[in-house]
Each structure stands twice: as structure tokens, then as C-alpha cells.
Design a protein that fits this description.
By secondary structure, the protein is an alpha+beta fold. The chain has helices at residues 27-104, 111-131; strands spanning 4-10, 16-22, 134-136, 149-155, 165-170, 173-175, 178-181, 183-188. It is elongated.
Length: 191
């Protein structure tokens, strides 16, 4: 049926082993060898795909790290520009305060001229700050709201409803919808 031969294989150390080699192999016996070759080829293909995806992942991580660094740098630069713009808008106020101090020290100063100068500086300050998003928290005829008001006292007043704001001790402010300082208020408590 088939001739069988022994095959001797030696390694570099001089060790050897004998194997039976059937020369008249049937197709079924060849398939496993082909399958082994197919598996090796498939393994090499998967390794190549894995290496390619690993390289893409490393590039993506590097790109993200660069993006994060660039975004942080842009944020710092934007904050500096905003700060510069706000300070530039406040410089005229500083100039007017200096003029007011000089006018108050002059012999021609009157209480009325000082009052008028201070009022102009206040108006200019409000305009500069509202230009940058500052809003006042309203308290007149309002009910106490802990999101916007800080109660620092209570008073009885039969003419007002419980929880109404009776007085404002310090004005509160909002910037672009966020409270930066709550109003300090006195609240009606008739209970």
C-alpha cells in the first residue's frame, strides 16, 4: 500500500529523533498540514492587524494628549485676553477716581460737586461691569430665595408676608446666570 520510511531529524545540539514518514499519504492526511499552514497564515494576518490597530491607538492617544495640551493653553490665553479687556474697561474709572481725589483736595471743591462726581463714577462702574455680564440680584418686593439671598436677620412686620425681604444689607450679583455673591438680607418672620 505505502512505503514507510524513517526520517531522522537532528537539532543544533546534536540530539536527533526518528519519525515515520508515509510517502503515499492520503488527501485526509495532507489536510492537517494545510490547515496548519492556513492557521499560521491566519495568525500572521491577525498579528499584522493587531500591530496596525496598536499603532493607530498610539497615534490616537498622542493626538488626544496634544489636543488636551492645546486646549489648556488656549484656555489660559483666553483668560488672559478677557482679564486684559476687563482691566482696560476699568482704567477710565481709575482715572476718574484720581480726578475726584484731586478735585476734593482743591480749594474750589463743594459737597455737591463731589457728590456729582462720585455718582458719575458709580454709573460708569456699573456700565463697565454690566458690559462684562454682571447683573444685580433684585430684592425689592421679592420673597426670600436661598439660591439668591443670604438671610442675616429676621424682623416682624405685620404689613408684609412671611418670607418677604424687609431690607437689603449688601447687594448680590449674578454673572451669566451664576450667583457670584448672594444678597445679604433681612427677612420677615411674623411667626
Amino acid at each position: 500500500m505505502a512505503d514507510e520510511k524513517k526520517v531522522t531529524v537532528e537539532n543544533e545540539d546534536g540530539d536527533s529523533a526518528e519519525f515515520d514518514n508515509n510517502l503515499a499519504s492520503s488527501p485526509e492526511e495532507i489536510k492537517p498540514e494545510n490547515n496548519d499552514l492556513n492557521l499560521l497564515a491566519e495568525l500572521e494576518k491577525v498579528k499584522a492587524e493587531l500591530n496596525e490597530k496598536n499603532d493607530r491607538l498610539l497615534r490616537l492617544q498622542a493626538d488626544f494628549d496634544n489636543f488636551r495640551k492645546r486646549a489648556a493653553k488656549d484656555k489660559i490665553e483666553l483668560a488672559a485676553v478677557i482679564e486684559q479687556n476687563v482691566l482696560t474697561d476699568l482704567l477710565p474709572l481709575l482715572d476718574n477716581l484720581e480726578r475726584g481725589v484731586n478735585a476734593a483736595n482743591s480749594e474750589n471743591a463743594t459737597v455737591e460737586s463731589l457728590r456729582k462726581g462720585i455718582s458719575m463714577i458709580q454709573t460708569e462702574t456699573i456700565n463697565a461691569l454690566t458690559k462684562h455680564g454682571l447683573e444685580f440680584i433684585e430684592t425689592k418686593d421679592k420673597m426670600f430665595d436661598p439660591n439668591f439671598h443670604q438671610a442675616v436677620g429676621a424682623i416682624q412686620d405685620e404689613t408684609k408676608e412671611d418670607g418677604a425681604i424687609a431690607a437689603e444689607f449688601q447687594r448680590g450679583y449674578i454673572v451669566r446666570g451664576k450667583v457670584i455673591r448672594a444678597s445679604m438680607v433681612q427677612v420677615v418672620n411674623n411667626g
